[in-house]
Design goal:
This protein has about 325 residues and is an alpha/beta fold. It has 13 helices and 13 strands. The chain has a domain at about 5-150: NAD(P)-binding Rossmann-like Domain (Rossmann fold, 3-Layer(aba) Sandwich). The radius of gyration is 20 Å and the shape is globular. The N and C termini lie far apart (about 50 Å). The structure holds NADP nicotinamide-adenine-dinucleotide phosphate.
């Protein structure tokens, strides 16, 4: 058996241009892997090159809705990582096309190439869920494991970090609105996980440290209700806002309109997702299918968010030094 060094190992990353993508690219660069980022717009990925040595990261064009582009992107790869996900549907960019059939096409291309597969899904993926997002994520996972039974699947809870779409979104909202809504009373539980910890888990899977054919659930060290997360965020940015409970029915009506914004603030499908707690299951904890099971001590929300939410404080330029 030939033992391949990391610098001889080519990893193709679909979705490498996203929030989690840049952290995964950075973690793999540190380990000296060769990285091919497969994205819809390679011309917009110049910020990824400096994460590695000269020539270590390069971008190619691929769209998960076009199987030929996937096959071309996977050619010659030893490992394939699928980070592609969407939060709302638009035209041909549907949950089913991207997260179910797109994921299947990636998995089948990896299988044909003999490449190992690391697939990123989400806690809440469930074939029986009323949410289309969650059902398509479950289909994507099933397709990944059907094509590559030795695939490693990661299901993160909500991911936080400098470019996140969670704390940044609500902090930005708090700068312009005196009220923040608590959908369903804000009782839904989350286990926010730091982007660097998710990236490290994926990198360890690339190293071969994760169990093949296993689904890991990735959560941080603490569980919070949505209300508690809003309170922590508001304390961090030093602002007081009214937290107003909004029943699911009314939230769904509002989401019916908000979903048509160019970048929807809320969709009816997301309201469905909010009805279910987003935390690591007891089974995953018991079976060590977690960050801790991979030897990673997760970062806390309070230790990380001050480093990037400072700009939403009233006097951000002073607070940066405190962070
Ligand atoms: N962030 C979280 O809180 C969170 C929580 C749980 C699970 N996850 C999962 O983690 C993964 C990464 O999430 P993220 O937060 O990094 O998302 P993100 O920032 O929105 O990135 C998604 C990536 O998918 C790409 N993409 C979308 N449609 C595509 C298509 N048709 N073909 C090819 N690429 C396409 C995007 O590229 P373009 O620039 O071309 O759009 C982007 O690179 C996703 O699977 C997501 O579901 C995330």
């Amino acid at each position: 058996m030939t033992i391949q060094s990391n610098s001889e190992t080519l990893i193709t990353i679909f979705g490498g241009s996203g929030f989690l993508g840049r952290h995964v690219v950075r973690a793999l660069c540190k380990r000296h892997y060769r990285i091919r980022v497969a994205v819809r717009r390679p011309d917009l990925t110049n910020y990824l090159q400096p994460l590695g040595r000269v020539g270590q990261v390069h971008a190619v064009q691929a769209n998960l809705r076009y199987a030929d582009s996937i096959a071309a992107a996977v050619r010659g790869s030893h490992i394939v990582i699928n980070l592609v996900g969407i939060l709302y549907q638009r035209g041909k960019q549907s949950f089913s096309a991207v997260q179910a059939y797109g994921a299947e096409a990636v998995a089948q291309a990896a299988a044909r190439e003999g490449a190992r597969l690391i697939h990123v899904s989400a806690i809440g993926a469930d074939a029986e869920s009323p949410s289309l997002y969650a059902r398509s994520k479950a289909q994507g996972e099933a397709a990944a494991l059907a094509a590559r039974p030795d695939a490693v699947v990661f299901r993160p809870s909500v991911v936080f970090g400098p470019e996140d779409d969670f704390f940044n979104k609500f902090a930005a909202m708090a700068t312009i609105s005196p009220v923040l809504p608590l959908i369903g009373g804000g009782e839904t539980l989350f286990q926010p996980v730091f982007c660097g910890d998710v990236a490290e888990a994926i990198a360890r899977a690339a190293d071969g440290a994760a169990k093949a054919g296993t689904t890991y659930e990735l959560g941080g060290p603490e569980i919070f209700s949505f209300r508690e997360l809003m309170e922590i965020m508001l304390t961090t940015i030093d602002r007081r806002r009214l937290l107003m409970p909004l029943p699911y029915g009314i939230a769904k009506l509002q989401a019916g309109l908000l979903q048509y914004l160019p970048k929807p603030l809320l969709t009816p499908d997301q309201v469905e997702l909010l009805k279910i707690d987003n935390v690591v299951s007891r089974a995953a904890t018991r079976e060590h299918r977690t960050l801790e099971g991979l030897g990673i001590a997760p970062h806390t929300v309070q230790s990380e968010i001050p480093h990037y939410l400072w700009r939403f404080r009233k006097f951000g330029q002073f607070s940066r030094q405190e962070a």
